[in-house]
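Minutes, project check-in
Item: structure for the 128-residue chain
Input as provided by the requester:
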Amino acid sequence: MKIILTSVFVDDQDKALHFYTEVLGFVKKQDVTAGEYRWLTVVSPDQPEGIELLLEPNDNPAAKTYQEAIFGQSIPATMFEVEDVLKEYQRLKAVGVVFTVEPTQVMGPVMRAVFKDTCGNLIQIVQK
């Protein structure tokens, strides 16, 4: 068994696609109309056949409540690994990304930072 897909709830799929591709650097993998929504996924450019991230609409009241609750408690919706947290922090900050946790050393050699994705989520980046 292996993980092939995970998701984050977003308040606007077009805005999320822009942020996750143009700002973070992911690549659009699937964009299929599904009723009034889209099955919209992105992948890492380094692993085009790897795990897909579904940019899932938060229109379901339970999804919206969950998303708002974890955001309100400063809990990241997901985590991405980067080679250099400080370098990524500087790159993202330079293009206007808002960080809620600046680069911080945690658990031995692990460095982390947390930012807002403009779609209702906190995202954590880590360097191992």
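Outcome recorded: Residues 5-127 form a domain with the 2,3-Dihydroxybiphenyl 1,2-Dioxygenase; domain 1 fold (CATH 3.10.180.10).
No further action items on this chain.
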